[in-house]
Amino acid sequence: MEVDRLVCAGTGLCLGTAHGRMRLDGGRARPVDEVVGPDDAVLDAAETCPMEAITVRDAATGEVLAPLR
């Protein structure tokens, strides 16, 4: 999971959606761990981010799993 911290507005929506997977750091979202499993909560956080600042990729292939465009 990647967060574009220049785009992130720090709404905290992702913290509620992917509880325990994200944290706020300096008013912007950041993944708790460098690599996280793409469970439904993580995918939902990327899909519902109002700024589209979160991208979830397959670690092996680099394929974008969310948000789907």
Structure description:
With 69 residues, the protein is of the alpha+beta class. The protein has a single domain (2-66), classed as Alpha-Beta Plaits (2-Layer Sandwich), CATH 3.30.70.20. Helix content is 20%, strand content 25%. It contains two helices and five strands, in the order E-H-E-E-H-E-E. The chain has helices spanning 13-17, 40-48; strands at 2-3, 22-25, 28-31, 54-57, 64-66. It has a three-stranded antiparallel sheet with strand order 1-4-5. Strands 2-3 form a two-stranded antiparallel sheet. Strand 4 and strand 5 form a beta hairpin. It is globular. It starts with a strand and ends with a strand. This is Cytochrome. It comes from Streptomyces kanasensis. It holds the Pfam family Fer4_15.
Strand content: 15-25%
Annotation field: number of helices: 2
Helix content: 10-25%
Number of strands: 5
Q: Which strands sit side by side, in order, in the main sheet?
A: 1-4-5
* First-residue to last-residue Cα separation: 16 Å
Classify the oligomer. Answer: single chain
Q: Taking all residues together, what is the mean pLDDT?
A: 94
Any guess at the CATH architecture? 2-Layer Sandwich
Number of domains: 1
Low-confidence stretches: none
Question: Might you state the CATH topology name?
Answer: Alpha-Beta Plaits
Pfam families: Fer4_15
Protein name: Cytochrome
